[in-house]
Amino acid sequence: MPPNHQLQNMFSAPPSGGAKAGPRPSIADWSFIKMARADATIQFTGVNAQNFINGGIGAPVFSYVSSTPTEAQYYKGLTPAAAGDSAQVSDSLVKIELNNFSYFETRVYLPGAVSTNNIRVWIGMMDCTDGGNSGNLQTSTPPAFAGLPSNVVAFRFNPASDSSWTCYVGTDSTHQTIVNTGVPVDISGAGHVFAISQTILGTINFFIDGVLVGAISSNLPTGTTRLAIVNYAEARTANAIALGWSFSYWEQPK
To answer: pTM score, two decimals?
Structure first.
């Protein structure tokens, strides 16, 4: 199922989007979270309560970026100029279960990095971070860290191992399936929509800007593992990097 929720037009500012106008009445459990106003309020709409927070390592500074004719408004976290510092916007309440998961979508920006060699990124669903404690994401294959497990269903970019965005599904630092999408990482500051869907139980599909870029059906977390939404970017060298985020949406059919 390709992404078809026209979420930008429904709740936020322009651009692409698909044919469907947002969450369907038949979906029992859904949540839409966006950065709402210039005061950087995070606004929630949906059935299931959220606890979206910003955080990171090294005290990143968060601010509002106004919309333009081609880009939605978004929330930007800027790190200090130190290797290992990070910025993230995530849900600290883990609640998405793969045995009932159908769709996730988020719009992310990567403005201002010196080069792709300077940035590591995770976008997706996982239980290996509680919002502020993200030290286990400072690697290509997240291990258990500070009492947190390492189940991940996400997009990854790590220049030490990746030449483009990869699709990543794993349960620990030694059990994962990785698919190279061939889609280059854009650090121009333009927004891109990352989506993950499951129409057949046990097969996870990955989309970038509406295009299917990978499918994985091995090394999946157990169906009852509860995952949270995480958007994360990290400086790999002593140069500041930024993570921009405008919305996240997920749904479960029951």
So the answer is: 0.84
